[in-house]
Amino acid sequence: MGKKNKEYVFDPRTLVYREHRVSRWVLARRGLLFFLGSILVAIFYLWLYAGLFGLELPKTTLLKKQNAEWGGKMAIMASRMEDCRRRLDALSLRDDGVYRTIFGMSEISQEERLSGMEGLNRYAELRASDHSGHLYNNVKELDLLTKMAYVQSKSYDEVDQMAQHSGDIASCVPAIPPFYPGIRFRMSSPFGRRSDPLYHYAKMHTGQDFAMDPGNPIYAVGDGVVETVKNELYGYGNSLIINHGFGYKTRYAHLKMILVQPGQKVCRGDCIAQSGNSGKSTGPHLHYEVMYKGNFVNPNNYMDMEIPLDEYAQMVKAREEQTGLTTDLVQPVHKDRKTLHKRKK
Ligand SMILES: [Zn+2]
């Protein structure tokens, strides 16, 4: 056993092995060469294995397997989200088609339901780093579902709010004249386009005008909640709006006195005001509007002017008994409707 840096060399002259010292430098160089050589051999074998025979390294096989597993998980996630999307779509359809329609609420458009999700660069980075696109698609879909669920739950809150404030559709929808038809009155201006009596240009008349003496009682035409009460010098003058739910609102304008307050619940036949001549008006009259889903509609289609007088009086009386408020304003002036109509002309 010799020391590491010693070698024995055969001397042919003396026929004896003799000791030969090898420098550390030479040893180091040999080691390095051996190391480089083995790397080259390894690379050659790798090339032979992977390049020429097309075989995979164990690590590659493992990574491929893991990748496939993740791909499978992503696909499961995508299909589950698709399922969620279908359910949410069904919910939104039922929301728009049934719940919101019942209460006369406007539908939520598909754009509104998906707004804020398109045209954004929020996914640019993700898209660049995600070659397969699985993660990118799933993240995008998940964001969309979150947004849809949020809009849907907000809509249900609105519907719930509406349902709590609405009663029975039959008692809410405007159905009677806003005043006792036995009084002296004249339909002075119909609904629709007309020339403005003050400014003389064609203008949409959004309601119906009934000329009548000031101080006549005005009644709620359906159950609802007083939405606004306004006292203006111009325009509608003293006016109020009742929200009946189911998409219906009514406005009563140019009033002398208003007997209700915003937020107050009213029933059909409740006395809410007295007719007058306030605001922009050419004479004492009631301006009466019916709005359905934000559009003005012809009030004629929402009242029966031929309602028997005693029926109207009975309804008002029943409400007075219920509320304990006696306005004592129903005084049948004309018993015979025909005479009344003749007098109007
Ligand atoms: Zn008018």
Key attributes of the depicted protein:
345 residues, alpha+beta, binds zinc ion, 10-stranded antiparallel β-sheet, 14 strands, two-stranded antiparallel sheet, rod-shaped, Glucose Permease (Domain IIA), 3 domains, single chain, 42% helix, 23% strand
Describe this structure in words.
This protein has 345 residues and is of the alpha+beta class. The chain has three domains: 6-52; 67-165; 171-344, Glucose Permease (Domain IIA). The protein is built from eight helices and 14 strands. It has helices at 24-52, 58-102, 110-114, 124-129, 134-165, 169-172, 309-323, 337-344, and strands at 6-11, 16-21, 185-189, 192-195, 202-205, 208-212, 217-219, 224-231, 238-245, 248-258, 265-266, 271-275, 285-292, 295-297. Strand 4 (192-195) and strand 5 form a beta hairpin. The longest helix is centred in the first third of the chain and has 45 residues, at 58-102. The protein is rod-shaped. The protein binds zinc ion. Zinc ion (ZN) is lined by residues 189, 205, 207, 209, 287.
